[in-house]
Amino acid sequence: MIAVDTNVILRRLLQDDLIQAARVNVLFEKETLILVTDVVLAEVAWTLSGKRYAASRDDVVAAIISLFEEPNVQFENRDVVWAALCDYAEAPAVKTANGTRTADFADALIVRKAAATLSVLGQHNGKTYTFDRPAQRLPGTQPL
């Protein structure tokens, strides 16, 4: 098993640099298992939705789903990532001082990872406390 960084996943998803994308494609074809960590997923979602790519929430969801469809991609915890992706996809919009916003994928992943870790530690009712108003609308959060 190998692990890959954010830029490798971005080249795989976007195919926007022909030379690098070709190298990534070869890597994905030859490696049996490729670990995509949670930090990489959060960075991928953040980068895609940023100014350069301006991907919509639906675009980010589709990109992460495409990683689930890769036969050799392994996540730190597939169920947690999937639950976070579903929470992100369904997050309601909230009016804030900076306009209408929704929780981002990183918020959803933080909450789901915390819940999974708390559960392993025997704390099944733990919440993730946050000041972030859009994130407060995710299941498993508590406003602070």
Structure description:
By secondary structure, the chain is of the alpha/beta class. The protein folds into two domains: 1-76, 3-Layer(aba) Sandwich (Rossmann fold), CATH 3.40.50; 84-144, no CATH class. Helix content is 52%, strand content 14%. The chain is built from six helices and seven strands; from the N terminus they run E-H-H-E-H-H-E-H-E-E-H-E-E. The protein has helices at residues 6-14, 18-30, 38-49, 57-68, 78-90, 105-120; strands at residues 2-3, 34-36, 73-75, 94-96, 99-101, 128-130, 141-143. The protein has a three-stranded parallel sheet. The chain has a two-stranded antiparallel ribbon with strand order 4-5. A hairpin with a 2-residue loop joins strand 4 and strand 5 (99-101).
